[in-house]
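Possible regression after last week's pipeline update?

I re-ran a chain I had predicted before the update to compare outputs. Posting the input and the new output here so someone can diff against the archived version. Not blocking, just want to make sure nothing changed silently.
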Amino acid sequence: MLDSLRHRLGELILSPHSASSTYVFALAMLPSLVAGLLLFRESAATLLVLAVVIGCVAQLPALFLKRFAGGAPLLSAVVAIALVGPNTPLLVVIGLAGAAAAAELLRARFLPSVRFQVGLAAYAAVVIATQGAPAAYLRPNAATPTPEPIRLWLDFYGGSRMPIDITRLYLGNVAGPVFVTSLLAQVVGAAWLWYARRLSLLTVLGCVIAATAVTLLFHWAPSYQLASGPLWFGLALLLGDRLNLPRNQLPQLLVGLLGGGAALAVRSRGYAIEGSLVAVATVQLASAVVSAGASRLAASPRPQERLLPPSARSASWKA
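New output (post-update):
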């Protein structure tokens, strides 16, 4: 058993492109989880334990029933909980983790061709349904509710002002979603996905171009608006994951342009970081549905071939 574990670990580190997609993405999330535990400590540990327990319970059908093969409810639960504030009510946390895990099982069972990050979609649905209940933020090592950087900028500053030093944003020593406040952690995670050949640089480039264009259009400070851990967790690690993107390069670039533009544009309507994440979830889900539909249409027989017997139909495809 120990030799098998060493072999899998060596394969994951040295040849991640041939390793399990679940393990590859889990390792990409590791910097975010470590940063969250260092910054928010007991609160982060409690939320992570809840997500892991609920995800492991939901993982059992995926392990023992073949019809759930390919589902990763544990990972979906952790992704969903990574985006909540450390002061979020435990009932909301439990409901969100359970919904994300269950929805991933259902996706793997009934819609395996529709690939998207279910944890992000579940978070977006709960934010909308509860009018922002997961957005209960605290500053690290403090017990008083504090606005996250984008909400602080919206409510009290606006324009091109920067109410928080860029260094703090980069390290993540600010209020925000418990496991994704650190931009540095997202950069490390994205670098791992790139090493594993899972990061679409075209999608990330599209995100950067569109997001920067929106900040310049509204005369905001690009350095402050883009130095956001939660933003790049959504745009790079989730939206930029090749596993959930179309195969062709042009659609990948278009997804990045739409995601980056939408994530920043919603801020002009009074939404903060939660609006950006909901926008990313919407773009990713739409992309997944369109890609699955296009693949099904491409695989379906042409009208004139439907009248042919199966043997003649396969011969026509070979020809």
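Follow-up from reviewer: compared with the archived run. The chain has one domain: 18-294. Marking as no regression found.
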